[in-house]
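User: Need the bound-state model for N-(5'-phosphopyridoxyl)-D-alanine:
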Amino acid sequence: MSLVYLNGEFKPLESATLNVLDRGFTFGDGVYEVIPVFNRKVFRFEQHMQRLTNSLESIYMSLDITNQQWQEIFTRLIDDSPDPHQSIYLQVTRGVSPRDHDIDLADEPTVFAMSRPIQKKDLSAGIKAISHEDIRWSHCDIKAITLLPSVMLRHRAKLKGAKEAILFRDNMLTEGAASNVFIVKSNIVYTTPKNHHVLPGITRDLLLEILERAGVEYQEQSVSLEFVKNADEVWVSSSTWEIVPVTQLDEDTIGDGKPGALYEKINRLYLDYRDNGVS
Ligand code: PDD
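Assistant: Bound-state model below.
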């Protein structure tokens, strides 16, 4: 029975229960974080906490939990499990209120956190993705719990035997349903600039740091669907998937259909950084 954190208390998952008038349930009124734990250490802690603060501010919320207190909460959850690699799920909702849009009626925020083993599927041989119109809203920079479009997009990918949906707004790349996207063409790496249409991925930012240190040219620039289909390499990144090569997009093969040379190099540097703090 795993231990979870709910509103100041640690308890078994089975006995962590919520009021049905929690605005997370009635309105999807909340934000979340997924924070990886590698070799039992929280990875990029400050960056995740800063993004949580930004998401909360964007929805007119704040919390009085310090980073030190978060560390203590996470440590207790991590210690409860023997797995070296885990993923912390943290969710904050606006709390309980009558079902009324007015946010001032809300009680205390609901704060929930749990840690689970990272379900490591080996995707390093490359995945198939579909391309899809970006059907989400205009504040994708907020890590909001309202994920219905992303759930539908992942399902549409699955129906076509694919693992991810790569999204386009007016024919221009935004990101994946639950990942950021990198395109390699003639040894230059392209990724969408940070704006309201993409989540500022923590893994994305780390990859740009690694590219910089490795002297690989990159551009934060959105590219078209045709550009992606003609790319030499396509990668997607997230905290739990890490870096995954995309070798097929719809019916088109990307590059030679195998993970590219730059992927192999950057993935090695990433794993080095993850495990030893160097790259
Ligand atoms: N999702 N873009 C979207 C829409 C995402 O949902 C995610 C991650 C990312 C990658 O961000 P990061 O590198 O910070 O994990 C980009 C998480 C893993 C999820 O919802 O489960």
